[in-house]
Design goal:
Elements lengths: L1 H29 L2 H43 L15 H35 L11 H29 L5 H25 L4 H30 L15 H7 L2 H15 L7 H24 L2 E4 L4 E6 L2 E2 L5 E2 L2 E4 L6 E6 L5 E5 L1 E2 L19 E2 L1 E5 L15 E14 L2 H6 L4 H17 L4 H5 L3 H19 L3 E6 L3 E3 L9 H71 L1 H16 L27 H4 L7
Antiparallel strand pairs: 1-5, 2-3, 2-4, 2-6, 7-11, 8-9, 10-11, 11-12, 11-13
């Protein structure tokens, strides 16, 4: 029987080695992350089986040595010669004790380090792992299903022999065989899930297995610490230090039920596991699980799509004829995994950004300056320039410039089937089209024009270009808006402040334009005013000349008339002229007429002017 146990341990060792190597090859062949993690588990099981097999051989040699000693003691008559049973007598026993004392703890420490390294490398690798290759999924499922069956049969046999024969060294390899069977079945399920469209389940199951491997590593460390303080009892069978209870529970899930029953018995103080309710629950547990699975499958026949969603209905991974696109509302379908509905926010406006990425801590900024970087990432585009610049040594530079542009693009899915089925990643493709068309457009426009008056025209042309390329690619989207919300020269570096220099140049140009316009305005004001003043002076001169000529003519005519009057009546003419001169000279002088009392002459006087009565020594009459 002992020889058969050793053969069983060796067979377990070989099977774990072959299964681990094959699982690694198939994981690389099928692109399965779960299979690769399973290969690591099987490799660790191979190490445990190897140390277990070696320790098994040492104990077998010790047993053979003890039987030979007993047989020799019975055959010899004089036993006094063999009464001394020192270390030299039982060499195999001493080798086994030294092995368990030094090699087993050392192996357990090394095993713990290997587990930790495997957890770290797998956890770091899993996020970047690819999806299973569907074309190779069938072969992978067949291979792992076969290995699952072989590992299960050998694991159950080894566990049964270890339990009945009380072979503690056969338990660790048997537990890893059963766990390998469970993992192989998980690989089959993840490949089937990928076949039905659940590609992420492979990576998720792999992450769960890595977490469990981390727990197994923690258990190995705890076992090492407890081994130092564990009391030695010869009557109690010791568990191998490298044996994992967690691996045993994962390989035999039914053991969890018995463990829970024992915990309940201990907690309540009586045999809860022997009550009718517990026995009924234990018998009906499978049916209850099946009913729950049935209810769960029934719940997958109902689909409710929100107002902003459209659904794609697939049956066995292919669109359902005449019912591929589901509108918002309530729908019925066949249960999973026969029918599956993939939701898409096709009725809502989606957007992406070209040339920039907004930092979360700067989302609310309102003031945008050329000299300050206000985005987390900014892309510099090549843009044309009509004015060719002169570089060093009077060499003509290439008429291009760098321009930082922030261009948001908004779109809506107009044909969901084209969006989903024509391309594997339509969202990434529409973003690439937007970036490409922006780059192509900017190299064909002038930098000053697009930064000033050409923004609206540029936005319309970019929208038309992106829409045309999207239609050509069969994306099934409608471009709603393309905006040029922020266009400015690159900010530059601390050594070369590009935006500040460009801002200074633009400021100087604006100041020049302002001075030119001010001069033109001054000229427009002064020249007409000077012309008006000249016209006024000319008009006044002409009027003055006219007046002088007419005055001279009038004087000539007057003189001629006076000469005729003088000739007709010289005395009257002279007296009249005398009194005219006298009247003109006394025009502004007040004149008084004093009338003597004795005269009876009548004088007619103008009484409009008030007369000073004190001058006449008279008083006004009082009524």
């Amino acid at each position: 029987m002992e020889r058969n146990i050793q053969q069983n341990g060796f067979i377990n060792l070989v099977i774990l080695l072959i299964a681990g190597a094959t699982a690694a090859v198939m994981a690389d062949y099928a692109g399965s992350a779960t299979a690769l993690v399973g290969a690591v588990y099987l490799g660790l099981g191979f190490l445990v089986a190897a140390i277990s097999y070696f320790q098994m051989r040492l104990e077998n040699r010790e047993e053979v040595e003890r039987l030979e000693y007993d047989e020799m003691m019975r055959e010899r008559k004089d036993a006094a010669l063999f009464a001394d049973t020192g270390d030299d007598t039982f060499i195999a026993k001493r080798a086994r004790e030294q092995f368990e004392r030094f090699f087993v703890p050392g192996f357990t420490i090394l095993f713990f380090v290997i587990q930790v390294v495997a957890v770290y490398m797998l956890w770091k690798w899993l996020p970047s792992a690819g999806v299973p290759e569907l074309g190779k999924a069938a072969i992978a499922m067949m291979a792992f299903a076969t290995f699952s069956l072989i590992l299960f049969l050998m694991g159950k046999f080894s566990s049964g022999v270890a339990r009945m024969e009380k072979q503690r060294l056969l338990r660790p390899s048997g537990a890893y065989l059963l766990l390998g069977s469970v993992i192989c079945m998980l690989v089959v399920l993840t490949e089937a899930g990928a076949w039905f469209g659940f590609e992420d389940i492979d990576r998720q199951v792999g992450q769960v297995l890595v977490v469990l491997l981390g727990l197994a590593a923690a258990e190995s460390l705890v076992n090492l610490v407890l081994e130092v303080y564990r009391p030695r009892n010869k009557r109690k069978e010791d568990r191998p230090l490298y044996e994992s209870r967690l691996v045993g529970l994962l390989g035999q899930p039914a053991g969890l039920v018995s463990t829970a029953a024992q915990a309940l018995d201990y907690q309540f103080g009586f045999k809860v596991s022997e009550t009718w309710f517990y026995k009924f629950l234990e018998k009906a547990l499978a049916w209850l699980i099946l009913v729950q699975i049935g209810i769960l499958m029934l719940s997958t026949t109902f689909v409710i799509l929100q107002p902003h969603e459209l659904g794609l209905l697939e049956r066995f991974g292919k669109p359902v004829a005449n019912r591929a696109v589901l509108n918002p509302g309530f729908h019925l379908k066949l249960p999973w995994p026969i029918d599956q509905v993939y939701r898409h926010p096709a009725n809502e406006i989606q957007s992406y950004d070209v040339g920039f990425k907004i930092a979360e801590d700067r989302m609310d900024e309102r003031t945008l300056l050329w000299t300050v970087s206000h985005y987390e990432e900014e892309v510099n585009f090549l843009v044309a320039s009509r004015e060719q610049q002169t570089g060093l040594n009077n060499e003509q530079t290439v008429p291009v410039n760098l321009l930082t542009a922030a261009i948001p693009v908004q779109y809506r899915i107009s044909d969901l089937e084209k969006w989903v089925y024509n391309h594997s990643n339509a969202k990434e493709l529409i973003e690439e089209i937007g970036n490409r068309e922006v780059v192509r457009y900017l190299v064909s426009v002038d930098i000053l024009e697009i930064m000033s008056t050409g923004r609206l025209k540029a936005a319309e042309q970019l929208k038309a270009r992106i829409q045309a390329k999207a239609d050509e690619a069969g994306l099934g989207v409608e471009i709603l808006f393309v905006g040029l919300q922020d266009i400015h020269p690159p900010v530059g570096t601390k050594e070369v402040e590009v935006a500040a220099s460009f801002e200074a140049v633009i400021g100087a140009i604006q100041e020049k334009e302002a001075k030119i316009l001010a001069a033109e305005g001054y000229a427009a004001e002064v020249v007409p005013k000077a012309k008006a003043e000249a016209a006024k002076i000319l008009s006044e001169g002409q009027a003055y000349r006219k007046e002088r000529v007419e005055r001279a003519r009038a004087a000539s005519i007057q003189f001629q008339s006076q000469m005729r009057a003088l000739g007709a009546s010289p005395d009257v003419f002279r007296n009249r002229k005398y009194f005219e001169v006298l009247g003109e000279s006394m025009n502004d002088i007040r004149k008084y007429v004093i009338v003597p009392e004795s005269t009876e002459e009548t004088f007619i006087m103008n009484l409009e002017d008030k007369i000073a009565y004190d001058l006449l020594d008279a008083r006004p009459e009082t009524p």
